[in-house]
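debug: dumping io for the single-chain case to check the tokenizer round-trip. Nothing else runs in this session.
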Amino acid sequence: MTADALLTGLALACLIVALQPALFAALNLALLRIPEAETCGSGLVSILIPARNEAERIGPTLVAALASTGTPVEVLVGDDHSTDGTAALVRALAAGDPRLRLESVPPLPEGWTGKNNACAYLATRARGEHLLFIDADVQLAPGAAARLAAQARRGGAGLVSAVPRQRMDTLGERLTVPMINLLLVGYLPVLAMRRSLHPSLGAACGQMILATRAAYEETGGHGAIRASLHDGVRLPRNFRRHGLRTDLAAGRDLALCRMYGGFRDAWAGFSKNAHEGMATPRALPVWTALLLLGHVLPWGLVAAGLLGDLPPAAFACALAALALSLATRAAVTLGTGEPAATIPLHPVIVLTALAIQWNVLLRRERAGAATWKGRSYPVGGAE
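debug: decoded output
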């Protein structure tokens, strides 16, 4: 086979691989709608917030949660042995609003991760028909709790999740955070997810997960995934193993979140989740091929074509693949409310994500643990 034929075949492969996320994104953005609230309300929603040293950011989160409309709410904060002013801040706000309560999370049992322990305990203290777990940096829109509960009721889902609109103030955040929505919108078959209960199709965003109390108790809730660091993957899959539906909604108008303060925090945070996500010996080579062919190699091939080093057929395929990749990124970015400035960073974002995943996989034995919030956990979690 000649070099020209090899280059043309590579460019054609890029085009074919880029086509799949483009088609998925177009369909998924149409399917993932902002939930409509019910006029009659959805009963009491318990908004549950695990908090460990969150004094700098939890204030706006509590104010937003207490401003919920469309359904009655209670807001429970689980103080997970914070050493800053988290507990004092919550007590001060609770003094003016009886719907807000501070709960002291019990000591971390062996075999549990901190967030799962806090969430499981908060669920035992909650009184609502629906349990809405949010991170301490997630600011809910006024109607978010009512809308998520309504979607769960209408669709008969035991769990509904959505990705909040992501605030990204630094270059480091813009090089890492956009992969969340690209993977969910571009690679999750939402239509199949809604028609099937297969666990592999379960997906959620750990920043914002609503579960019905009945479903949560039936599945064991966070206790069933107690050793996991990736509740966004493990929790919906466990619900599906129990024959319960899970669903996703568009989250850009439901909540706002700033996940990380910069590149170092983002690298550490995504590395934590990588232990139970893509960074496995079987999955990562496949993901690497898909992401490189669909989103990175077309740039190099187009550059070569502009320099006259590519056959015309290969250049045409590479150009089409590049156009599809950028169109996918633009559609996901604009559809989820992310900064438009991240669109031209797309190939670097993909390479950064792959670097995080491969670093975790190749350094697994040397690292030996995932570290988060001052705690270290063994690599790998409960299925």
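debug: round-trip ok. The first strand starts at residue 45 and ends at 51.
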